[in-house]
Automatic annotation (TrEMBL):
<feature type="binding site">
    <location>
        <begin position="188"/>
        <end position="195"/>
    </location>
    <ligand>
        <name>NAD(+)</name>
    </ligand>
</feature>
<feature type="binding site">
    <location>
        <position position="58"/>
    </location>
    <ligand>
        <name>FAD</name>
    </ligand>
</feature>
<keyword id="KW-0520">NAD</keyword>
<keyword id="KW-0560">Oxidoreductase</keyword>
<feature type="binding site">
    <location>
        <position position="323"/>
    </location>
    <ligand>
        <name>FAD</name>
    </ligand>
</feature>
<dbReference type="InterPro" id="IPR006258">
    <property type="entry name" value="Lipoamide_DH"/>
</dbReference>
<dbReference type="InterPro" id="IPR001100">
    <property type="entry name" value="Pyr_nuc-diS_OxRdtase"/>
</dbReference>
<feature type="disulfide bond" description="Redox-active">
    <location>
        <begin position="49"/>
        <end position="54"/>
    </location>
</feature>
<comment type="similarity">
    <text>Belongs to the class-I pyridine nucleotide-disulfide oxidoreductase family.</text>
</comment>
<dbReference type="GO" id="GO:0050660">
    <property type="term" value="F:flavin adenine dinucleotide binding"/>
</dbReference>
<dbReference type="GO" id="GO:0006103">
    <property type="term" value="P:2-oxoglutarate metabolic process"/>
</dbReference>
<feature type="domain" description="FAD/NAD(P)-binding">
    <location>
        <begin position="5"/>
        <end position="338"/>
    </location>
</feature>
<keyword id="KW-1015">Disulfide bond</keyword>
<keyword id="KW-0963">Cytoplasm</keyword>
<dbReference type="InterPro" id="IPR050151">
    <property type="entry name" value="Class-I_Pyr_Nuc-Dis_Oxidored"/>
</dbReference>
<dbReference type="InterPro" id="IPR016156">
    <property type="entry name" value="FAD/NAD-linked_Rdtase_dimer_sf"/>
</dbReference>
<dbReference type="GO" id="GO:0004148">
    <property type="term" value="F:dihydrolipoyl dehydrogenase (NADH) activity"/>
</dbReference>
Amino acid sequence: MSEQFDIVVIGAGPAGYHAAIRAAQLGMKVACIDAALGKDGKPALGGTCLRVGCIPSKALLDSSRQFWNMGHLFGDHGISFKDAKIDVGAMVGRKDRIVKQFTGGIATLFKANKVTPYYGFATLHPERLVKVKQHDGSEVELTGTNVIIAAGSDSIELPFAKFDGEAIVDNVGALDFTEVPKRLAVIGAGVIGLELGSVWKRLGAEVTILEALPDFLAVADAEVAKAALKEFRKQGLDIRLGAKVSKSVVTGKGKKKEVVVSYADKDGEQSITVDRLLVAVGRKAASKGLLADGTGVKLDDRGRIEVDEHCHTGVDGVWAVGDCVRGPMLAHKGFEEGIAVAELIAGLPGHVNFDTIPWVIYTEPEIAWVGRTEQQLKEDGVPYRAGSFPFAAIGRAVAMGEPAGFVKVLAHAETDRVLGMHLVGVGVSELVHEGVLTMEFKGSADDLARICHAHPTLSEAIHDAAMAVDKRAIHKAN
């Protein structure tokens, strides 16, 4: 006999736990199932984001940034250190404490909102029956008037670079190195590769990033990508473009393990030998084993659950959100989809505007954007005007010793409506939301230009970039 719920949520990552809590707030009886265990072997809610993704990577990025600044920035402030050292174990321990704090926080929120958690692997069967194989081997059955699938995503493994958790790792392994590798190779110059490559470079590793594509960060604005690449190379990141990896061979044992990585580029066949290899070529929907026969839920050719614009699968009462469906694999996109579906089920309006989802890469300098790039506008024949402004002319950025980068505002040439904002520099993960807000309210570059920004602040770069759209920036020769 299965237990009946108004909503059964499969997955307690960003999309799932937001859906569960919002549905409970709206008065529904909710169950949420998650299979993940923490490093202590106990259930750990929060999905990849909280356990082995967004939060722990930012903890290590911040720790490594402090260490890097001691040797590369503090001297300009008249601050000196002698023989600075990094305790990797302490750094990773701090990261683990932060993770535990937040995963425990989700459990507390579930309790406060009367969401019933189940711990184990869920499979959806016909008629919205969900069978859960719990960690103790027992099985429970739940039935939902509605089921929300929020199964998340997994790292993509390459056939010639299988994860062994030691010499060849995914993002999980790269968050838990016990010491700084002398030589680290990264396959993939995307978000994960750049962020984790930056962590270990700052701590002293020789980092080589191998990117198969000929262009760096092709998804970003070309001018932003060019500026970012220049800064990363100045920091010592060895980023090799057009490098297609074909083979990896692990030699040695224990701490003497090495990986020989073979790749081809414009100069022919190449190889490098490293102590650790991080494979960061993207993620795939975690849909394997999720659906029993006869559910009617369909998967696309990439293993993602097919949904409409409202995240409905086409099967009565079955929805899907987050990384396991179309759209960007971003935690905040999952947040919004989870909430929207809970509200739709409750009979309320629910919608996610994909045109205003911000993207951020938390490197130094940070990279962020919202909306369309210049490349996209040109390809689509959209008339536009661009205004940009460098952080090197912003008093606050220079005073902070962080003058790299700029802000670019793109506006429609006829209506002046903001179509995109692209940023590279210090703190742009926060600044990008001025662009998000402006675009959500269908604002213009002139609206941004006429909003008073406090001086001296980093946000003045947005103000001046917006003014530059109309060639009236005060602090720039237009």
